[in-house]
Amino acid sequence: MAALSIDDLDDAVTEETPQADLFSALTDRFSGPGGADLDLPARSTRPRAADLRE
Question: What confidence tier does 2 reach under pLDDT thresholds 50, 70, 90?
């Protein structure tokens, strides 16, 4: 019985799955139904530049 379980686990772990690039994997993961439709206000002022002086 234990040998059968180990064989089943080994087959499940070593089973080949198609590899996807990161963008495709994230798109597939988060492209489900729903989402948020946000009504963002327009910017009235320009964003200030970053101060990169040390």
Answer: low
